[in-house]
Structure formats: C-alpha cells, structure tokens
Predict the structure.
Amino acid sequence: MAVHNVVTPSLGNADGEAILSSWLVNIGDKVTLNSPVALVETNKAQIEIEAGFEGWVKAFLIPIGSELTDFQAILEITSDQP
C-alpha cells in the first residue's frame, strides 16, 4: 500500500493568511491525477488544490478553517481501495 500526501503549492501570500475553506472530496472517494480536492482562501483569490496522485482519499490532515503554509501536507491518498 502506497500512501501519498497532497501538499499545498507555494501560495504566494506573504501579506496575508491562506485558510483551508473546504474539502471537495470525502474519505474513501476515488481521485484522479490533478483533480481538485480542496479550496484555499487568500486575501487575493480562492485557490483549488489538486491531487498530485491517483487513488482513494485516506485521511484529512488539516481541519477546515486552519491557516496553511507553503508546501504543507493536507491530505493522504492511498493506492489501495478502501
């Protein structure tokens, strides 16, 4: 079983917060490469975070409403179907 972390990109938000506003998937959902999995709000834009792997959502690592940093792990995807 391979488990991969989805991480935030460089959010480019030095002058404000980046907040995890919602999940676009649920635990157990199948995701494909580059499918959107979360929404992040900054003072400039709403950003979709995409899955960098194909598989099934295993765990949320960060609760909604949390402040995020660049390259922070937010979600686990497993290659094994639940």
Observations:
- The longest strand covers residues 36-42.
- The chain has a mean pLDDT of 91.
